[in-house]
Amino acid sequence: MESKNAFIGKATQPTEEEIATALGPTAALWDELLAWFAAEHGVETQVWKSYSAKYGWSLQLKLKKRTIVHMAPYGDSFLVAYILGDKAVKAALDSDLPKSLAKTIAEAPRYPEGTGIRVTVKNARDLAVIRRLAPFKLAQY
């Protein structure tokens, strides 16, 4: 069964307590990732968005006005999404990424705003993928 945003149908921004409850055992990983983006890359601005109650709420991490990553709480996991431009995709594919990750990027859906890379975080190993992709998103091509 496909996971869904934990806040579908919620009219107001979720509280920290609601987020922690929804994330369950992955709450510590969520916090770790937020701290890592802030400490390692200066990505500290957090903006909660809901485009519709049908899709729930997601957190955008921004560097100045640029959205770096989207994070959405699911039940006992969370989704992290990057939108990579063409130059970032090329740089990622030309790098030494593991073949499985390069394949994910190559097969990812293309949108007018870029290539959508989504990673569901269920354990600490999943954070490694997100950390490997961050430099491609953060680079100014």
What is the radius of gyration? 15 Å
| Strand arrangement in the largest pleated sheet | 1-2-3-4-6-5
Please name the CATH topology. Aspartate Aminotransferase, domain 1
Alpha-beta classification: alpha+beta
Count of helical segments? Answer: 5
Terminal Cα separation, in Å? 38 Å
Report the count of strand segments: 6
Question: H/E series, N to C?
Answer: HHEEEEHHEEH
Mean pLDDT: 94
Which CATH architecture would you pick?
Alpha-Beta Complex
- Top CATH class: Alpha Beta
Description:
This protein has 141 residues and is of the alpha+beta class. The chain has a single domain, classed as Alpha-Beta Complex (Aspartate Aminotransferase, domain 1), CATH 3.90.1150. It contains five helices and six strands, in the order ααββββααββα. The protein has a six-stranded antiparallel β-sheet with strand order 1-2-3-4-6-5. A hairpin with a 3-residue loop joins β1 (45-52) and β2 (56-63). The longest helix is centred in the N-terminal third of the chain and has 15 residues, at 27-41. The protein is globular, with a radius of gyration of 15 Å.
Give a quick precis of the structure.
The protein contains 5 helices and 6 strands; from the N terminus they run H-H-E-E-E-E-H-H-E-E-H. The protein has helices at 16-23, 27-41, 86-93, 99-107, 124-138, and strands at residues 45-52, 56-63, 66-74, 77-84, 110-111, 114-121. The longest helix is centred in the first third of the chain and has 15 residues, at 27-41.
Essential attributes:
Aspartate Aminotransferase, domain 1; globular; six-stranded antiparallel beta sheet; alpha+beta; 141 residues; 6 strands
